[in-house]
C-alpha cells in the first residue's frame, strides 16, 4: 500500500464530493496510516467506526452486508500475526474502495430503465473495474484477484475454491428472478420451508434490540396476505421506509403462523426504472462469506480469463452438437440475462461433465479388456451345478444374472460387472455362485463390504450357502476387519499368503499393506458406491500382476437412464424380481400428532414378540449431529413413550466393538426397539424386526427411504414401514406418497430422478466419481447418449489424445479424473 492515489480511486472527472464519499475517503486514509505505521493495529478502531457509519447510506442490501463484513474483517485483523496483516489490509482497502458506487449519496443519476442495484451487479462482459492488472491463467490461485486476502481465501477454501477455475465451476444453487413473484396468499396453504419471491408494500418497519446485535424487521402486504421479513443487519432498516414497495426472495418459513423470510435478497420497486430483468445468482456460502463477494469474484475471474481460458472441447464436437464456447457458458451461468441463455449455458457445461466422464470410463474399460485375468473355466461346471443344491430356487432374474456372470468368468479378460438388485432380491446367492467357480478353479476370493456389521453378516451367510457341498469341497472362509484382534491376524495373514483360505471377507482392512493373497481370482464388492475408486483399484494390485475378475453389488436402485453415466466402464446385471413368498411391506404415512397411531402399532408388534427400528433424520453430513439426534430420540422414547420397553441405541460414532455388541444383543432379542442413525441403511439383518419407523422422513430421498424399508420384512412376518414427519413441503409429501404407493425400488429411483435430478445419485453416495456440479439439476438422456458417442469417436481417432487439437482436452480430462482414479491417465 502506498500513500499515492491507489488504482481504483475516483478519477478527477468524478462528481463533486459528498458526505458519504468523504467518509469513505477518511476510511481509506485511516487504512493507509495503519499501513504506514507498520500494521500495529493502532488505527483499526477508527477505521471500523468510520466504515460502520456508512451503513445508513448503503444503496443495496448487498452493500450493507459488505459493510458489515468489512467491519468484522477489521475486528479479525487485530488477531492476525503482524507478518500476515499486509495482504489482509490490502484486501480490506480494496473492498472499502469498491463501496463507492454503492452508496446512496454517491450514486450518479440513473440511466432510464435501470435500477441502482442493476448498476452494482457485476457485468463480466463489460466490467472495467473488475479487470485485474494482468491476465491470469485458470489454475492461478484466487488470491491473485483483488479483494482476496488470507481471510477470504480461507473461507473460499472451505467451498473447495482455490483457483480461478474452481471459482467459475462453483455453480449458483439457484437464481432470483425479481420479475416473477408469487402472491403471498397462495403460499399460506403450504407447510414447511420453500424458496419464494414475493412483492409487497412495507406496512411496518422497526429496529429490534437483541442480546448480541440489533435486527431489522419489516411487515409487507400484497393484498392477498402479509409476511414478516427479518434482517440481522439494522442498516437495511435505514435504507427503507414504510410505504415503499419491495421484492424479497429467499427461504420462506411456513412453519410459523406468519410466513417469514430471514435475511432474504431484496430490491426496491421503482416504477420509473422497473425491476432488473437479469437473473441474480445465489451461491452456496460458508460463514463470513457473502453473496456480493462471490458475485464480484466471479466477475473478476471472467475478466481475468478473457483471453486465457482454453476451450478443451474439440471444435468439431462443439459444431456437431451446437454447443456454445466455454467462457461464454461460464459467463451466462453466473450472470444470465434470461432463462433461455441459462439453459444454453447449462447444456454446454452438462455436456462437458458427461463427456469427460465417458472419456475416463471408456479408457478404463479399454485398459481392463486389454488386461489378462485368471483362468476360471475349469470351475464353471461346478458353478453351474451349485444353485441346484441351495435350499431355495433361483428366480428368473437371478438365473439370468448367474448366466451373465459365468459367461464373463469363462473369458480370458477380466470381468467388470455390476449386479444391481433390490434389498432381499438374492444378490448374495449370485455372488456365491461366482465364488464357487473361482474356488473350484483353485483361486481365492475377496468379499469386501463397507461396514463391519455387513462384513460379519457375509462371513455368516457364505458358509451357510456352501453348506450343501461335500465337506472337502466347501470353501474355507475368514473374516478380517479393523476390529480383528492381533492374535487372529497372525493366523489369518500367513494362511492367506499360503493359499489356505479360500474366501476372505472383510472391510477396507483387506486392502491394507501386509494383506497378501497367493492366488486372487475374484473380487466381490458389496455396496460398491461406498468405496472410492482408489480403494476398489487397490485390490487388483494384490493379484500378482493379473487383473482379478470383479463383481460389484449394490442394493441402491439406480435409474436405468443413469446406468451408463455411473457405470460406463462396467457391464450391468439387474435383478428386478423378488423371491416368491415374500409378503410386501406395508408403508404408511403419519403427519404431526398422528405419530401416536404409529406408536400404537409398535406396541402391538412388540406384544407379538417382534422388534422395531427407529431411524433419526439426517440433520446434515455430520456424525456428531446425527449422534446427538439419535441419543435425544432414544431418551425421549424411553422416558416419554415406551418406558416399559427395552430400547437400544446405534450410531456411526460408536466404536466397532460397541456396535457389534448392540447388534448381537438385538439379534438375541435383548431389546425391543433399536434407535439408529443412517448407519442402519446398509447391512442390518434382524429377521424378527417387523416395524421400521423413519422420523423426519420428508428429509430423506426416495432411494434412501427405500433402503431403510428393506431392513424389515426379512423373516416372513407381515412388516410395516412408518413414515413420520411433523410437516412436509410439497416435494416432501410427493416423495412420501410415492413410497406409500409402491415397493418397486427401480420405479422409485426413476421417480426420484424426476423429482430431485441426478444429484443424489452423483453425489457423496457415489464416492469415487469426479465432481460434476452441472448435473445437480435437470438431466437429458439424449445429451448423455450424444456425449458418450462423441467421446467414443474422439478416442477412436486419437486413443491417447496426443494430437495438437486434443492437448487441452487431455489436460482437462486428466485433471477431471485425478482426484477420483489414479489409474486413468491420458497421455
Describe how the helices and strands are arranged.
Elements lengths: L18 H18 L7 H9 L8 H17 L7 H13 L18 H5 L29 H9 L5 H5 L5 E3 L7 H4 L5 E16 L6 E7 L4 E6 L13 E9 L6 E3 L2 E4 L11 E3 L8 H14 L10 H6 L5 H9 L4 H32 L9 H6 L10 H14 L6 E6 L5 H14 L3 E5 L3 H14 L11 E4 L5 H12 L5 E4 L13 E7 L6 H6 L10 E6 L5 H7 L4 E5 L10 E6 L3 H13 L3 E5 L7 H19 L5 E4 L5 H12 L5 E4 L12 E6 L7 H8 L10 E6 L4 H12 L3 H12 L2 H4 L18 H17 L9 H12 L9
Parallel strand pairs: 4-6, 9-14, 9-15, 10-12, 10-13, 11-12, 13-14, 16-21, 17-19, 17-20, 18-19, 20-21
Antiparallel strand pairs: 1-8, 2-3, 2-5, 3-4, 5-6, 5-7
Helix pairs in contact: 1-2, 1-4, 2-3, 3-4, 9-11, 11-12, 12-27, 12-28, 14-15, 24-25
List key phrases describing it:
6 domains; alpha/beta; disordered N terminus; seven-stranded parallel sheet; disordered C terminus; 39% helix; single chain
Concise summary:
This protein has 28 helices and 21 strands. The chain is an alpha/beta fold and 827 residues long.
How would you describe the overall organization of this protein?
There is one protein chain. The protein folds into 6 domains: 1-108; 122-172 and 283-308, no CATH class; 174-279, OB fold (Dihydrolipoamide Acetyltransferase, E2P) (Beta Barrel); 315-369 and 780-818, no CATH class; 372-575, 3-Layer(aba) Sandwich (Rossmann fold); 586-742, P-loop containing nucleotide triphosphate hydrolases (Rossmann fold, 3-Layer(aba) Sandwich). Helix content is 39%, strand content 14%. The chain is built from 28 helices and 21 strands. The strands form 4 sheets. The protein has a 7-stranded parallel β-sheet with strand order 11-12-10-13-14-9-15, sandwiched between helices. It has a 6-stranded parallel β-sheet with strand order 16-21-20-17-19-18, with helices on both faces. Helix 22 (656-667) links the parallel strand 18 and strand 19. It is globular, with a radius of gyration of 31 Å.
Amino acid at each position: 500500500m502506498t500513500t499515492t492515489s491507489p488504482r481504483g480511486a475516483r478519477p478527477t472527472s468524478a462528481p463533486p464530493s459528498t458526505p458519504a464519499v468523504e467518509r469513505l475517503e477518511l476510511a481509506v486514509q485511516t487504512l493507509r496510516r495503519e499501513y504506514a505505521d507498520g500494521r500495529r493495529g493502532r488505527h483499526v478502531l477508527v477505521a471500523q467506526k468510520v466504515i460502520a457509519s456508512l451503513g445508513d447510506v448503503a444503496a443495496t442490501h448487498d452493500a450493507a452486508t459488505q459493510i458489515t463484513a468489512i467491519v468484522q474483517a477489521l475486528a479479525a485483523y487485530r488477531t492476525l500475526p503482524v507478518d500476515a496483516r499486509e495482504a489482509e489490509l490490502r484486501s480490506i482497502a480494496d473492498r472499502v474502495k469498491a463501496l463507492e458506487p454503492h452508496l446512496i449519496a454517491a450514486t450518479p443519476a440513473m440511466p432510464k430503465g435501470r435500477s441502482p442495484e442493476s448498476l452494482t451487479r457485476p457485468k463480466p462482459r463489460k466490467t472495467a473495474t473488475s479487470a485485474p492488472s494482468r491476465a491470469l491463467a485458470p489454475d492461478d490461485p484466487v488470491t491473485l484477484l483483488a479483494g482476496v486476502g488470507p481471510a477470504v481465501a480461507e473461507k473460499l477454501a472451505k467451498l473447495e475454491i482455490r483457483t480461478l477455475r474452481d471459482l467459475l465451476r462453483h455453480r449458483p444453487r439457484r437464481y432470483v428472478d425479481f420479475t416473477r413473484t408469487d402472491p403471498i396468499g397462495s403460499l399460506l396453504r403450504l407447510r414447511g420451508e420453500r424458496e419464494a419471491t414475493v412483492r409487497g408494500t412495507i406496512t411496518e418497519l422497526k429496529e429490534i434490540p437483541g442480546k448480541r446485535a440489533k435486527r431489522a424487521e419489516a411487515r409487507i402486504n400484497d393484498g392477498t396476505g402479509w409476511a414478516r421479513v427479518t434482517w440481522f443487519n439494522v442498516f437495511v432498516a435505514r435504507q427503507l421506509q414504510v410505504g415503499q414497495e419491495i421484492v424479497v426472495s429467499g427461504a420462506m418459513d411456513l412453519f410459523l403462523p406468519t410466513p417469514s423470510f430471514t435475511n432474504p435478497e431484496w430490491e426496491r420497486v421503482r416504477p420509473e426504472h422497473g425491476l432488473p430483468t437479469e437473473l441474480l445468482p445465489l451461491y452456496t456460502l460458508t460463514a463470513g462469506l457473502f453473496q456480493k463477494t462471490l458475485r464480484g469474484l466471479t466477475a473478476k475471474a471472467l475478466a481475468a480469463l478473457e483471453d486465457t481460458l482454453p476451450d478443451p472441447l474439440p471444435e468439431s464436437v462443439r459444431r456437431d452438437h451446437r454447443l456454445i464456447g466455454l467462457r461464454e457458458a461460464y459467463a451466462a451461468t453466473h450472470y444470465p440475462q434470461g432463462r433461455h441463455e441459462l439453459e444454453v449455458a447449462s447444456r454446454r457445461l452438462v455436456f462437458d461433465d458427461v463427456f469427460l466422464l465417458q472419456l475416463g470410463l471408456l479408457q478404463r474399460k479399454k485398459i481392463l479388456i486389454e488386461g489378462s485375468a485368471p483362468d476360471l473355466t475349469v470351475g464353471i461346471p461346478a458353478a453351474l451345478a451349485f444353485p441346484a443344491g441351495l435350499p431355495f430356487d433361483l428366480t428368473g432374474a437371478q438365473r439370468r444374472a448367474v448366466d451373465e456372470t459365468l459367461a464373463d468368468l469363462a473369458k480370458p479378460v477380466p470381468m467388470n460387472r455390476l449386479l444391481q438388485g433390490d434389498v432381499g432380491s438374492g444378490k448374495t446367492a449370485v455372488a456365491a455362485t461366482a465364488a464357487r467357480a473361482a474356488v473350484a478353479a483353485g483361486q481365492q476370493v475377496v468379499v469386501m463390504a463397507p461396514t463391519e456389521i455387513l462384513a460379519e453378516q457375509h462371513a455368516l451367510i457364505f458358509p451357510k450357502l456352501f453348506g450343501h457341498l461335500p465337506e472337502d469341497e466347501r470353501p474355507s472362509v475368514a473374516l478380517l476387519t479393523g476390529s480383528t484382534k492381533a492374535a487372529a491376524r497372525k493366523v489369518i495373514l500367513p494362511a492367506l499368503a499360503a493359499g489356505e483360505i479360500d474366501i476372505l471377507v472383510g472391510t477396507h482392512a483387506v486392502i491394507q499393506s501386509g494383506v497378501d493373497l497367493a492366488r486372487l481370482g475374484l473380487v466381490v464388492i458389496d455396496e460398491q458406491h461406498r468405496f472410492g475408486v482408489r480403494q476398489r483399484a487397490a485390490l487388483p494390485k494384490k493379484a500378482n500382476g493379473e487383473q482379478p475378475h470383479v463383481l460389484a453389488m449394490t442394493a441402491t436402485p439406480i435409474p436405468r437412464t443413469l446406468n451408463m453415466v455411473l457405470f460406463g466402464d462396467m457391464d450391468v446385471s439387474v435383478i428386478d424380481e423378488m423371491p416368491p413368498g415374500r409378503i410386501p411391506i406395508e408403508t404408511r404415512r403419519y403427519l404431526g400428532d398422528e405419530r401416536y397411531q404409529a406408536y400404537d402399532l409398535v406396541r402391538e408388534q412388540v406384544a407379538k414378540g417382534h422388534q422395531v427400528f427407529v431411524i433419526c433424520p439426517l440433520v446434515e453430513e455430520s456424525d456428531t449431529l446425527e449422534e446427538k439426534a439419535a441419543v435425544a430420540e432414544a431418551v425421549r422414547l424411553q422416558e416419554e413413550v415406551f418406558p416399559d420397553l427395552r430400547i437400544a441405541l446405534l450410531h456411526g460414532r460408536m466404536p466397532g466393538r460397541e456396535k457389534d455388541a448392540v447388534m448381537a444383543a438385538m439379534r438375541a432379542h435383548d431389546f425391543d426397539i433399536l434407535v439408529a442413525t443412517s448407519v442402519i441403511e446398509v447391512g442390518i439383518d434382524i429377521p424378527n424386526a417387523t416395524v421400521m419407523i423413519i422420523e423426519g422422513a420428508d428429509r430423506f430421498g426416495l432411494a434412501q427411504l427405500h433402503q431403510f424399508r428393506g431392513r424389515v420384512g426379512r423373516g416372513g412376518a407381515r412388516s410395516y414401514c412408518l413414515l413420520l414427519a411433523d410437516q412436509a413441503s410439497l416435494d416432501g409429501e410427493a416423495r412420501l406418497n410415492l413410497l406409500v404407493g409402491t415397493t418397486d425400488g427401480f420405479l422409485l429411483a426413476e421417480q426420484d430422478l424426476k423429482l430431485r435430478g441426478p444429484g443424489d445419485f452423483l453425489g457423496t453416495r457415489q464416492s469415487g466419481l469426479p465432481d460434476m456440479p452441472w448435473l445437480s439439476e435437470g438431466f437429458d438422456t439424449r445429451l448423455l447418449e450424444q456425449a458418450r458417442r462423441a467421446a467414443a469417436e474422439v478416442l477412436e481417432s486419437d486413443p491417447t489424445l496426443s494430437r495438437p487439437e486434443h492437448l487441452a482436452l487431455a489436460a482437462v480430462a486428466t485433471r477431471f479424473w485425478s482426484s477420483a482414479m489414479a489409474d486413468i491417465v491420458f497421455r
